[in-house]
Design a protein that fits this description.
The chain is 42% helix and 14% strand. It has 249 residues and is of the alpha/beta class. The strands form two sheets. The chain has a six-stranded parallel β-sheet. Strands 1-2-4 form a three-stranded parallel β-sheet, sandwiched between helices. Helix 1 packs across helix 2.
């Protein structure tokens, strides 16, 4: 299995604080059956101002330590970017870390309270520059979970959607669980990821989610993530970003 969203690099965000903690999380991933993880530290202006150089340097050190410890887990570069108008100029300046640094997909997180007016234009501008947004855990944003129409519009517009394993097990409450179930039934969930920060509940929830989905889950934790690492979207999914008319709201 491949996890496209995990906070495994130490000292960058609310994930592991030490290398010991990071290695413990890596071992937990291996025990859970994962063979590859995209390291996605938060990038939030004013809170987690992690730059490209720091993320890649920390990733390289993590790879070296995993090899030294004999931990058989492949780490790939990435980041979870808080959606902000500054993402577009940062992309143009070559400052962003896309998924596997392939320059094709970017993991983004929307604000939790409401969808800001700049969200659609920024998503459109990213896509217009050849970078498809992958929206992290939309089922956990209340305003998205309550608006199936908006989720359908996002997916129809070319935004890819990543559901958190724990949402399927009720870890985040009944609202996210219902929304995650609906996204799966509607075929709008493109990836299933742990969003793990430490060993424990979220990886345990991942195991339970995989049991619930059975063979249906293979596409979300193996096939689609593998394509993503290669710079390709899910088979049959629309990419290229929202239509021009959608960009203005």
């Amino acid at each position: 299995m491949i996890d496209i969203h995990a906070h495994i690099l130490p000292g960058l965000d609310d994930g592991p604080s030490t290398w010991e903690d990071a290695l413990a999380l890596a071992r937990a991933f291996v025990r859970a059956g994962y063979r590859a993880v995209v390291a996605t530290p938060h990038v939030v202006p004013g809170l987690y101002p992690n730059g490209r150089g720091l993320i890649l340097e920390r990733l390289g050190e993590a790879r070296r330590r995993l090899a030294q410890e004999g931990i058989d887990l492949d780490l790939h570069p990435g980041a979870e970017y808080f959606l902000d108008p500054g993402l577009v100029p940062a992309l143009e300046a070559g400052e962003l870390v896309t998924v596997n640094d392939a320059g094709r997909h970017l993991l983004v997180e929307l604000p939790s309270a409401e969808m800001p007016a700049f969200a659609r234009p920024v998503l459109f501008e990213l896509a217009a520059r050849g970078v498809t947004p992958v929206l992290a855990h939309p089922e956990r944003q209340d305003y998205l979970a309550r608006s199936r129409r908006l989720l359908e519009e996002l997916a129809a517009g070319g935004v890819l959607l990543q559901v958190t394993c724990g949402s399927l097990t009720g870890m985040f409450g009944s609202g996210p669980r219902r929304c995650a179930d609906w996204l799966l039934r509607a075929g709008l969930a493109h990836y299933l990821a742990t969003d793990a920060h430490v060993p424990g509940r979220r990886l345990a929830a991942a195991a339970r989610a995989h049991q619930l989905l059975g063979e249906r889950g293979q596409r979300l934790v193996e096939d689609n993530p593998r394509a993503l690492l290669q710079g390709r979207g899910p088979e049959g999914a629309r990419e290229g970003g929202p239509a021009a008319g959608w960009a203005g709201g």
